[in-house]
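Could you please consider the sequence and fold appended to this message?
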Amino acid sequence: MFRALILLFACASAHAATAVYKDQAFIELFRRTNGIVACDGAFSVPLSDGRVLWLFGDSYVDSYRDGSVPCLFQVRNAGMVHRKDDLANVQPLIGKGPGFKSLFKNTTNKETWFWPVAGFQSHTNVYVYLSGLKRAGSGPLGFASAGQDYWGTMSFPDLSVIKYVALPNFNGIDFGTGVLQEPGSDFALAYGQKRKGMSLSIYLARFRASKPETDWTFWDGKDWSANITHALAITAQGATSISVCKVKGKFLLTSSQFSVGCDQGKEIYMAVSDKATGPFSARQKIFTIDDTHQGHYPFFYLPVAHSQFINEKNELLVTYCINGYEPCVRNCNDGRMNPDHYRPRAIRVPLEAVLK
């Protein structure tokens, strides 16, 4: 009996050591009452001076009042910056008019816009991959590719947007799934995705970090090809969204169970590879979101691992986004909504649980 109790305690302790839990400090980072008060996206870019640039999609700006925000966001994209070890002093990055004050905007046409999805720094420039979108229908998937993605270039260290450069034709692949710089090399890797129904095919490209606008090559299964039509998917996931980062020499693919509305997918998965080109391990479930409201799960998406935020316990920061509880629970009431129903969440994942 004593031995059984010891074994039970050891198993319980091991489980506790690898448990995933909510990171309240980072959750509160996104629960602001001024500046950017609600948003989705939450992609992070480490900067060479110890700061971190966060990039967001549709966002509510300076619209918080009495615990609520208007039902319609104010900008299509925004950013904020803070020192890596200081979550209290945050600088919002908002664009100027006319029209929507999006941070990244090269037209006054409200039917097209940018969503920033990845970025990296090269010397005195910060390059942000901008997915070009256009309105297409309604609902959570009421958008489509505008057919042209861009680099948005920001000057460093002031982080002002200085130019937009159109990217090459990628044959319908969005290469903003993850941009990784190769240590000691001028090359950077870009992971891309292309949807077919409920599945995302994942591709890999390479470019020179010092000149990211041109000379892209694509993994064809054996080598790098300059022809995008030769690109071969390195893996696929049944998911709403995916992201890829590099952690301690391994490539980590994070994905969300397919969800386009309430009470659908609620799982976050991870898969790992020793090589950028794969193969990736079978994905494993690492967390079931628990953000229920009136007994319902939200529409959720965009789990993103942030390798620069590994803490002293060797735990990786992962954010994910929720977007209300429609149609199970009405989102907009009398022209206002709860901002907590449109704010990123954060969890901590022990690396020993995923880098096996």
User: Anything to note?
Assistant: Confidence is low (pLDDT under 50) at residues 1-17. Helices lie at 2-17, 24-29. Residues 290 and 297 are 8 Å apart (CA to CA). The first strand starts at residue 21 and ends at 22.
